[in-house]
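tool_call: predict_structure(chain=1)
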Amino acid sequence: MPHLDANAELLRRQREIVDRKTLKKFTKRRDLPGLLYFFGLLTCIVGSGYIVFLSTSWGWLLWPAMLFHGIMLSHLFAPLHETSHGTAFRTRWINEAILWFCGIVTIWPPIYFRYDHAGHHTYAQEPGKDPELVLPAPRSLIEYIYYVSAIHLWIKNFGWLFRHARGYMHPFNRQFVPDEDLWRIYLEARIMLAVYAALIIGSIYFQTWAVLIYWAIPTVIGVPVARMLRVADHTGCPEEPDLHTYARTVTTDLLTRFFCWNMSYHCEHHLAPSVPFHQLKKLHEEVGDQMNPVGKGYIAVQWEVLTKHLSGVFPKRKKVQPLSKKI
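tool_result:
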């Protein structure tokens, strides 16, 4: 199968940067770090939700409060991403329960996303193959705004849900999913649509705006922040299968790393997806000099993408030559 060949090639390129023995010490899975990050994030979400509650009687202040709450909610994509890899927790049922919770709240079908994202890791930055290739050059400012606004996200994700609920999957996406798991993906779409329908019906029956105010509207207006973070992961990096340079490691503060579950170390994450998020900093310290650290934060990367990449004149980064291990 072509995917098996591609994964074998990916493993070979990984071994050129870090050997199996060195990598093994970073791959141990634990429950505590993930629980601390997850419940820490939930605490922030509850806090921002309480601010929305206080703002319901303050008129126009409700919208800034919902925006802040939506930004907190959008960060649930981080644990969704980590649990899709199965590395966030040692205990499988915890991993799967949080995967489902985050998938329903953020409207990402969790099982299908796991396969789609695996395809992204196999074919990262390869046009026509990478299912998550973001804004390949050249692109326009309008296309950037369209992506960051998340309009494309809702079209794509609800398209997945409605197609899968009908028992159909687009042929391009179908290539990443084993035959034996199709029924699970179709079932998850039906379950998720049933949950959303129940929320709508319940809101109408009980004549409440709670679902809109505390979830739906904040999610729509807050998710563009998460989209901007996704832009920084790959956009503007060489569109070719090179583990050294097809993702970037962004310099950022401790709080942002907490909300992103260390995905600022994105080059290291693509080098070794088996490494749990809480070990990425240590992996960076081990092999970061061979990767693609840009020495810029998320905002600076956005400006670089806007001023250089969109026009198609973004300079290709020089390939980083592997360095011999210091004795």
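agent: The chain has one domain: 2-309. Proceeding to next step.
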